[in-house]
Specification:
This protein has 336 residues and is α+β, with helices and mostly antiparallel strands. It folds into two domains: 172 residues, no CATH class; 142 residues, no CATH class. Helix content is 45%, strand content 14%. It has a four-stranded antiparallel β-sheet with strand order 1-2-3-4. Strands 5-6-7 form a three-stranded antiparallel β-sheet, with helices on one face. A hairpin with a 3-residue loop joins strand 2 and strand 3. It is globular and about 65 Å long. The relative contact order is 0.11.
Length: 336
């Protein structure tokens, strides 16, 4: 998720766990705790973009990291803090819960979170919520602002913190319900169109939980499409993309390709654009794909020109966003 959501979530959880002991500082330390796993972004300063994409949400987002570092951070805080009510055990619980909440929230998105590193490279992604969803964040923002205003001795502080966490969790449940409805219709539509699918992904389009981006893997390639929970018919228009793995001949020893294959979990296509091979990770969708089914993919990597791969995961995500593009998104959400 985006940094603001983690900060707000951390602040509310901090208030619930240690508000009585630390007063408003509990929100501060909670917010800081939830930013710790994302310090892995500094890897981009010495890693290639492909390596950095794989490193992000890697070891620092694992249970092993939590087991090792929650007690260490707790020990440091105990030495720094003069609050006798915050024992080493309580500090350990505080940081373990905050770090666990971070990796749980991240796993709800598409990127993939390496819960089991270093013992397994499997990345958990439930594809339930977009990486930045204001309808999720707002339920955390309102009580966080109220808590900043309320005095530390107000009994209602706990209720505000719990309500923020409860309503934001309910929103996740709403997203899961939307996903379930979409998945059921996708299954029926694939059967009607006689598409033999080996894997299917449904994930929210930007900033909402009503329009879902679909990826269907078949033997020769992928079908992509969009489905709104407000669509009036079950019909779904799919666009086919060939895998084109034959274009990778000669790249068997390419380290960037090895990292990209592992990162994308097989949801990729290869394109030859102006004599340059481009690796597309389909999971992040297309730029304005709801209105342009032939648009380029948000995650595209130049295999033969790695120095051009800056901000590879979000490349072009908002490059074409303007009033018309936003209106087209709203129109598509409203349904066919």
């Amino acid at each position: 998720m985006d940094s603001l959501t983690h900060i707000l979530s951390g602040a509310l959880i901090g208030e619930v766990i240690a508000g009585k002991q630390l007063k408003k500082k509990a929100m501060l330390w909670g917010a800081i705790a939830q930013t710790i796993p994302d310090l892995d972004v500094i890897s981009s300063s010495w890693m290639s973009p492909a390596e950095s994409a794989l490193a992000h949400r890697g070891f620092t987002h694992s249970f092993t990291f939590i087991i090792l570092f929650a007690p260490l951070i707790a020990w440091l805080m105990k030495r720094m803090s003069k609050n006798s009510e915050m024992t080493f055990k309580r500090w350990t619980i505080f940081f373990a819960i905050e770090l666990s909440a971070h990796i749980l929230i991240d796993s709800l998105t598409t990127y993939g979170t390496a819960w089991f590193e270093p013992f397994s490279h499997y990345r958990v992604s439930f594809n339930v919520i977009f990486v930045a969803d204001p309808f999720y964040t707002i339920w955390l923002l309102i009580p966080a602002v109220v808590l900043l205003i309320l005095r530390s001795n107000k009994k209602s502080r706990m209720q505000w913190a719990l309500s923020g966490l409860l309503f934001s969790t309910c929103y996740i449940g709403y997203c899961i319900n939307n996903k379930s409805q979409v998945d059921a219709i996708v299954d029926k539509e694939l059967s009607r169109q006689r598409v033999n699918a080996s894997r299917i992904i449904s994930t929210p389009s930007p900033l909402n939980s009503w329009l879902w981006y679909l990826i269907v893997e078949s033997k020769d390639g992928f079908y992509t499409g969009y489905r709104s929970v407000f669509d009036k018919t079950d019909s779904i228009r799919f666009q086919f993309f060939s895998k084109n793995d034959s274009l990778l001949a000669g790249f068997e020893e390419n380290k960037d390709l090895e990292n990209l294959l592992r990162f994308s979990q097989g949801f990729h296509t290869i394109e030859d654009i102006n004599d340059t091979l481009v690796y597309n990770d389909l999971r992040f969708g297309q730029i304005l794909g709801w209105s342009d089914p032939h648009g380029e993919f948000v995650f595209h990597y130049y295999l033969q020109n790695p120095v051009s791969n800056v901000m590879v995961v979000q490349r072009g995500r908002f490059s074409k966003i303007n009033r018309d593009a936003f209106n087209s998104l709203i129109t598509r959400i409203e349904g066919n």
